Every structure is written in structure tokens, then in C-alpha cells.
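To make this tangible, this section ends with a sequence with its C-alpha cells:
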Amino acid sequence: MPDEKRLAREAFAEELRSNPTSLESFFNRYAGLMAYYRCAMMEIETKFNVLNEEFSLRYDRNPIQDIRSRLKSPRSIYRKLQKKELEVTPEHIEEHLTDVAGVRVICAFLADVYLLADALLGQDDITLIEKKDYIQNPKPNGYRSLHLIVTVPIFLAQEKRLMKVEIQLRTLSMDSWASLEHQLCYKKDAEFTDRMRAELYRCAELSAELDEKMDCLRKQTNIDEE
């Protein structure tokens, strides 16, 4: 184990021995905050499920193929706050991090991505904080997706809280490419050459071409006519 990790673990153990009450308070507040984030994800998932049901009735098809949610791990939260040179506290987590709670929506067609995004953002209890369109402006490696950071209210027994949620909307082909790219590029000790990166980028271009062709076929079949 690297010295810095060993020293951090020893410092944590010493803090636990010297001040167990403050650490217990921190863990209680952290657990409570994570519960709020889980509630926020459930709210967003419910909104998308309702939209999917509505569009199913309207067009006789489901624009959403899958919905997934995830809560950022304590290690990832710690690293992000350390990178921002911030103390790890529940207050800093809530104030400075926007992707603790994440919801990914996998859509059938490219047009569905924007259809669902517009429908969600049109709801009066959703506030858009940030929008990054990596479909119109893909990342250098070819990654494509529509990212939204929003706040959504959760209603507790005695209060209402606004919680931040990161939403990613993408097509099936975008999701497949992103999943495979992650496995190829982020495996430990894997050697990834410039030539391989170029091939991966070409795969992203082929994925984009597939989405465009499928969207063109969708228009020709008039499946979205009421």
C-alpha cells in the first residue's frame, strides 16, 4: 500500500479513537444525504416512466428502452472533493458535486433523446443547471450522449429538498459504444495505442451513422404520427 494511503488510514483510525462522536455524526449525516439522493433518482426515474407510458399510448411504441441509476461510490466522492481541494463533508458534497446521483436513459431513436429531454425540462418542478450536448459536439474520443444536470424536489415528512441529479440520455448504439470503450480503455495494465484509439473513434462514427439511418427510417415509416 502506498505511504499516503497508509498514513490516511492511520489518521482516520486516530480520529476515530480520539473523537468517535464527531465521526458517528458525519456518517449519520452522510447516510442521510445519500438517502436523499436515492429519493431524487427515484423521482427522475418515475418522471421518465410516466413519459414513456404517455408516448406509448400516443405513438404505440416505447421511446425508452432502459433506465438505469447509480449512486457515486464513497471513494469517487472522496477523490472528486480532494481534486477540488475541499474537505470531505456532507455540505461540500451537496454544494460542489453535481453527479453524485446519476440516471441514464437509453432511447430507441436519436430523436427520442431530444423528445424526452424537452418533455422533462418542460415540467415546472425541474430546473436545468447545466446542459452538455455531446451528440452535436462529440468528445475527442467519439463519445456521444446528452448530459443534463437538474434539480428535482423530494418531499420529506417535514420539508422539501432540492437535489441535484445528472441525467444521461443516449441511444442504444451510443450506450453500446460507451460500454465497450470503457472496458477497452480503462482496464488495468491494458496497453491502448494511438492506432487503437483511431479505430475506436471510427467505431463511434459508424455508430453515429447507424443512428442517423435508423432515425431516417423512423421518419419514413411515420411511426410517430398520432
Observations:
- Residues 81 and 185 are 24 Å apart (CA to CA).
- Strands lie at 64-71, 101-107, 127-133, 146-155, 160-171.
- The two ends are 62 Å apart (CA to CA).
